[in-house]
Write a sequence for this structure.
């Protein structure tokens, strides 16, 4: 039986995994422990301990029936609608920003015409536009989705323009020599070459989407994570407030981890090229 001499033994592999986990999360774990010790010492109603927050979070969101995967009504009323708005608005921003970015990156005339308008619009802070968006689109879910899309489209758009304009002309000339139609040229040459920058813009916009989701739910809302955080602050339910903050942190962490997983598979070829170039 052949033996793979390059493969480390299971104990060594497990040791490396534990060491990697400890190096990556030791600072965060240390901060949580310090927070627990400090808040247990202070006994302030404004700063509950992490253990109290975690227990209350379980009661809030994981106290439902087994047929609902133990998810409580609050998850279906507030958490899932917020996630739906966030992902819908962000997806619209990624699609629109990529399409417009490719067009502006390929056409100098379109870029010169639209750039001043886009520079003006992207300088407008999304939260400041909430009253205008309420007047234009009402107070329902559509307004919040449009606000998220408007505030998150700019990193995708600008990175796509930059990525498209940075494509090596030799690649384009080579593709044209095979008489590829414009659609195939964009799909097979321009988009793959610009994909690292497009993905970077989408990753930045995802963080902005979480912020705008919360801000949009602070105003004229009847549900959502932001609504519950504001309601907890106004009614002095401070543990509920910290639970909402914890939920946002976990949501951001999970979405970033999921995006990183997708990014690894989208750009595996790009990292492979860099690794070969570094050898």
């Amino acid at each position: 039986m052949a033996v793979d001499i390059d493969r480390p033994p299971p104990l060594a592999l497990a040791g490396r995994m534990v060491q990697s986990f400890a190096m990556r999360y030791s600072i965060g774990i240390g901060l949580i422990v310090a927070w627990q010790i400090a808040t247990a010492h202070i006994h302030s109603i404004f700063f509950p301990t992490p253990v109290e927050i975690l227990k209350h979070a379980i009661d809030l969101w994981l106290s439902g029936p087994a047929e609902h995967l133990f998810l409580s009504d609050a998850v279906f009323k507030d958490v899932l609608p917020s996630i739906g708005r966030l992902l819908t608005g962000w997806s619209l921003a990624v699609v629109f920003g990529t399409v417009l970015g490719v067009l502006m990156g390929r056409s100098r005339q379109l870029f010169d015409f639209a750039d001043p308008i886009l520079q003006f619009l992207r300088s407008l802070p999304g939260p400041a536009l909430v009253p205008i968006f309420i007047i234009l689109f009402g107070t329902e879910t559509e307004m919040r989705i449009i606000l998220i899309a408007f505030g998150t489209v700019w990193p995708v758009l600008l990175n796509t323009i930059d990525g498209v304009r940075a494509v090596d002309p030799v690649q384009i000339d080579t593709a044209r020599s095979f008489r590829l139609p414009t659609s195939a040229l964009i799909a097979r040459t321009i988009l793959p070459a610009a994909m690292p920058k497009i993905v970077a813009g989408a990753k930045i916009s995802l963080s902005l989407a979480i912020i705008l989701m919360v801000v949009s739910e602070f105003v004229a809302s009847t549900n959502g994570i932001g609504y519950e955080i504001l309601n907890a602050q106004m009614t002095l339910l401070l543990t509920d407030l910290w639970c909402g903050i914890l939920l946002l942190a976990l949501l951001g962490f999970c979405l970033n981890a999921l995006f990183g997983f997708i990014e690894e598979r989208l750009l595996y070829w790009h990292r492979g090229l860099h690794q070969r170039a570094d050898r």
In short: The two ends are 33 Å apart (CA to CA). The chain has eleven helices and no strands. Residues 182-217 form the longest helix (36 residues).
